Amino acid sequence: MSNDASDSVNASTRYCAVFGHPIGHSASPAMQNAGLAALGLNWRYLAFDVHPDHLRPAIEGARLMGFIGLNLTVPHKLPALDMVDVLDEQARTWGAVNTIVFETRDRSGPWVPLGATETPPEREVRSRGCNTDADAIVQALKEAFAWESLRGASVLLLGAGGAARTAALRLAREGVSALYLVNRTQARAAELAADLAISCPGVVVVQGYPSTSVDLVINATSLGLKAEDPLPIDPQWLQARRPRFVYDMIYRPMETGLLRAARSAGCRAANGAGMLLHQGTRALELWTGRPSPVAVMRAALEKNLYG
Question: 132 with 142: CB under 8 angstroms?
């Protein structure tokens, strides 16, 4: 069935969505709906502001209403670990869920994505928690900075939530030499440092700012979404140390205060649009079982973000 933007939603339309708090900044609907249209699917991708206290019933409601799947953004990626029926290997490895695939049993018994069924099933449906962020951050960094390998790099990571944890573990797997962890709540940074010491003993993990420069700074906090937000980094350290690269996972606004400060300090800087694209195309593949139209989704994302 044709799925042009001009087509109306009808009784056969199926749904997927992103849950976050806040969610008004999200560019995922524009990107994902363009992908769905290119695949000729009568599906729609929606965005919902879900308070953390309501995440569990919201996930359950989506399951009961026959949603194909969900994306989860700040602050839901860690809590969702305990709110899905099963975790895939990526979610278990990286310790966060950013994608949920609703599944049912096919006639021969194995679990299959609801997107592989023609109609919402009458049989049992379960939720499978996945993580598409980990590989997306590495791919985005390599693209943004023409960086062939992150092996041996030193990284200052701002934040200790779900996105930060995924980035830290994935970068450690890439072979970075040192991770410096800065978070508003020191206890959460200490918890992440302890996890890294166990899972990645070959990486030097330090809480706090390094006394020297680093190759890369990553902002994995939500500071920068609002114009009045303070910088997530000590501006004096940034000016004095001048890291090579600064990557802000935030993609709207296009240039956050951190990115402006980084460029003013002479650093190469990029926002999180590339990470959003790559985690989103992989999520769509999990839901549909088909290759994503990456070029179409990239164009839709850039149009939504930059006009």
Answer: no
Q: What is the Cα–Cα distance from 307 to 302, expressed in whole angstroms?
A: 7
- Positions in the chain whose pLDDT score sits under 70: 1-7, 120-121
pLDDT digits (tens, 9 = 90+) for 153-172: 999 999 998 899 999 999 99
Whether residues 124 and 67 share a domain: the answer is yes
For residues 94 and 106, give the distance between their C-alpha atoms in angstroms, rounded to a whole number: 29
Let me know if 77 is a catalytic residue: yes
Catalytic residue among 77, 142, 226, 303: 77
| Co-location of 122 and 68 in the same domain | yes
Closest CA to 224 of 176, 262, 181, 186: 262
What's the rounded Cα separation, in Å, for the pair 177 and 179? 7
Q: What is the pLDDT of residues 193-206, one digit of tens each?
A: 999 999 888 999 99
